[in-house]
Amino acid sequence: MTARHPFHDIAVVGVGMTQQARRLEMNSLTASVHAAKAALADAGIDRTDVDGICARWPGPGGTVFQPGSADWAGLLGIPVRWIGDTYPQGVPAVLDAAAAIATGQCHTVLITGGQAGVMSAEAGRVASYTRPENEFVEPFGSFTTAQFALVAQRYLHEYPHARDGMAHVAAAIRNTGSANPDAVMTGRGPYTAEDVLAAPKVVDPFTRLEVCLANEGAAALVVTSMERARDLPSTPVRILGGGAEWMRQQYVDPPRYDDVWMIGADASRRAYATAGLEPEDLDFVQLYDVNSAEVLRQYEALGFCKQGDGGPFAMDTGIGIDGGLPTCTDGGVLSFSHIGWGAPTLKIIEAVRQIRGDGGNRQVPGARTGLVAGAGSGAQYYNVLVLGAAD
Predict the structure, then answer these.
(1) What is the Cα–Cα distance from 157 to 154, expressed in whole angstroms?
(2) What is the pTM assigned to this prediction?
(3) Mind telling me which InterPro entries this protein's record contains (predicted)?
(4) How far apart are CA 240 and CA 140, in angstroms?
(5) Residue 237: pLDDT above 80?
(6) Alpha-carbon distance 19 to 34, whole Å?
(7) In Å, how far are 67, 112, 165 from 352, measured between CA atoms?
(8) What's the CA gap between 8 and 206, in Å, rounded?
(9) How far apart are CA 120 and CA 166, in angstroms?
């Protein structure tokens, strides 16, 4: 390992989530509270042990100024020393929390979020969070999948052979989710690449089996120092490295392939350097599988293969649980769950469970290091987190 980085003294010590389902009989706030309680119980601490909050406030009540993490202090009935409102979800939330803990601003951070009670109102329509009220999005009927499709179409023009690879990774990740009893799409499969290509088209080039879910649930994490973690009953998972790239605000201006296809390459290099690892040292990856092309893109940007070789890499290496690079081991947002703002946190929960050895029938043998990623080309930002066993 390289010279010790301050992140190495920080760990995820608690993970929790609600049931992940097409619909839940609760609202987003209630779901997020349930997930937070589960994460605190997993960590073996009480809410009064928390002195930092990084959690988008979903309402009702509270502030109308988003993200509004400070409202959680009032709900939990605790004073806090630090709130993280920059991007309170997934990898950015963990990196912000780790920095705050490492610099002594707080010692224990709760991260929670998700959505519930909203999808029933959107049945048969594009989920509202995929069509923000931005000047070149909502008025023209654009939505997030179309933004990603713009980039994927150019990629296929440059590398036509990638079409087979896209279908292969979609089938592989969905089949992993089909075997996960906790996945929203459990039992839906197995699929072949041919099934993926034959499915109804959503946005060219994507078929229905190549794009992510939109469902309900919540997820939460507890992050603290390794010093405190040693006194807790849970198994800590150490933060080894991380990084982010922000090109521009998401879903405002359309993405350009030349700008965004390799977004994440710099962030991952910095994350690897901090962790003292190379891509081949990772035991698994939890990619943001928002669509099939984005999975191939991440293999290339993260340094597993050259640009244009994402499809052959996936097919030759194997991305299932028993493959050379297990990918999205819970079924990802393609099959396990996509809960809006809480979806990136699900990726970290699955990584923590794998490193703890709690993966059940989807456990990657001997997993000790893994990478979690969020967002991508269509969103025009990307973030990376490398986690490892505490010892």
Answers:
(1) 5
(2) 0.95
(3) Reg_chr_condens, Thiolase, Thiolase-like, Thiolase_C_2
(4) 43
(5) yes
(6) 10
(7) 26, 15, 28
(8) 40
(9) 30
Q: pLDDT at position 66, please?
A: 84
H helical segments located in the chain: 28-43, 70-76, 90-102, 144-158, 162-178, 193-198, 226-229, 257-260, 265-275, 292-301, 310-317, 332-335, 343-356
- What is the DSSP-derived secondary structure letter of residue 339? -
CA 387 to chain centre: 13
Phi first, then psi, for residue 184 (nearest 5°) are -60, -35
In angstroms, the CA 71 to CA 274 distance is 34
Angle between helices 292-301 and 144-158 (to 10 degrees): 60
Residue whose entry in the numeric block shows the structure tokens 């002594």? 104
Structure tokens at 193: 């690449």
For 133-199, the DSSP string reads S-TTTGGGT--HHHHHHHHHHHHHHH-TTHHHHHHHHHHHHHHHHHT-TTSTTTT-----HHHHHHS
Q: What domains does the chain contain, in order, with CATH numbers?
A: 6-121+216-229 (3.40.47.10), 134-212+240-389 (3.40.47.10)
Q: Which amino acid is at 306?
A: K
- Cis peptide leading into residue 92 (ω within 30°): no
Give the burial class of 208: count Cβ atoms within 10 A of its Cβ; 0-12 exposed, 13-18 middle, 19 or more buried: exposed
Reported as a single tens digit per residue, the pLDDT across 288-314 is 999 999 999 999 999 999 999 999 999
> Phi/psi of residue 208, each to 5°?
-60, -30
CA distance 309 to 204: 21
Residues linked to residue 285 through DSSP beta bridges, in sequence order: 327, 371
Half-sphere exposure of 356 (CA within 13 A, CB side): 21
- The CA distance from 189 to 195, in Å, is 10
Task: Report the amino acid identity of residue 251.
Answer: Y
State pLDDT tens for residues 365-391: 999 999 999 999 999 999 999 999 998
Query: What is the DSSP secondary structure assignment for residue 21, as one 8-state letter?
Result: B
Query: Helix, strand, or coil here: 235?
Result: coil
